[in-house]
């Protein structure tokens, strides 16, 4: 065998060795990726990048779900601009998930978004508190927690982007703050993606759940959402509701709640203010009951309502007072509905709200 033939054979052998070594290295690398979870992490990261059509904000995800092992997927987006779900890949008590959904205010709201408004007359479980930090949003809580934010399009009159973030799992303070960040920042990204110029708030650093009845204060000491009713403290006491359960004042919140509670800390009267997209959705949830003179449960009229024109939207603001039903005892703790007290309380509440927001033409509504 000639020297040339020997060298050629050696080159083929070496090439085979190199190819085999390369395949072996690839196999080892793949094994390392699988065994260390690096591949799963990369794959899960890709799902997060694509979630909600690429608008999902990831800043607060880890805090909301108490994990970095997260995977995203799509959910039914019927009626929404976009929607997605993020799940904690850990099992057991550390598991959990959240959903983010975004829609236009000009589109009929999906029925699942109206559930919160249908519970206004049933106690104080479905309560809200402002997000704060300049965000036009609220935290809602019943058995689960939801963050809602409404971003008005400054370049498109009477159009807003409405975002919902629902948390299924731990709703600790850090989790709510994370949910708030995910929801608000996703809404901001979605607005930018769809040419909606908005006035966003600052990054949320603390979001708190609405307080329970143990946080009620004497009405004459109210400093937040019930402060406009302080002058009615004596009348409220005579009506059996001497205390107030309130939230911080926030002129950008799309919904404001004020509850008057009994001495036993039971629900008496609930006062609500709705603005912009929230006002529109509230009216949709009520159908014709308000105008026809029926309460939320389609029973005897035990409510009063008013409207006002506000500069932020062509949609009139809505103010409502309900005699509250206590689901725990199946009673009306405040007793008989007082139309005169209800009118006085609602007028004071609406006056305080309209003054704070620069609204005008506030008037009591009448039923047909």
Spatial order of the strands in the main sheet? Answer: 1-2-3-7-6-5-4
Structural class: alpha+beta
| Relative helix content | 25-40%
- Outline the biggest β-sheet: 7 strands, antiparallel
- How much strand content do the residues show? 15-25%
- How would you state the average pLDDT, rounded? 85
**Helix run count:** 8
Question: Please, what is the oligomeric state?
Answer: single chain
CA-based shape? globular
Rg over alpha carbons: 28 Å
Order of H and E elements: HHHEEEEEEEHEHEEEHHEEHE
Poorly predicted regions:
none
Total beta strand runs: 14
How widely separated are the two ends?
A: 111 Å
Could you please describe the fold and organization of this structure?
This protein is of the alpha+beta class and 368 residues long. The protein is built from eight helices and 14 strands. It has a seven-stranded antiparallel β-sheet, with helices on both faces. The protein has a seven-stranded antiparallel β-sheet with strand order 8-9-10-11-13-12-14. The N and C termini lie far apart (111 Å).
Brief summary of the model shown:
The protein has 368 residues and is of the alpha+beta class. The protein has helices at 3-36, 38-54, 61-65, 173-193, 233-238, 276-286, 289-292, 339-357, and strands at residues 70-74, 82-88, 97-104, 127-132, 135-141, 145-152, 160-168, 217-218, 243-246, 255-261, 267-274, 303-309, 317-323, 360-364. The model has no long low-confidence stretch (mean pLDDT 85).
List the helices and strands and how they pair.
Blueprint (H helix, E strand, L loop, with lengths): L2 H34 L1 H17 L6 H5 L4 E5 L7 E7 L8 E8 L22 E6 L2 E7 L3 E8 L7 E9 L4 H21 L23 E2 L14 H6 L4 E4 L8 E7 L5 E8 L1 H11 L2 H4 L10 E7 L7 E7 L15 H19 L2 E5 L4
Antiparallel strand pairs: 1-2, 2-3, 3-7, 4-5, 5-6, 6-7, 8-9, 9-10, 10-11, 11-13, 12-13, 12-14
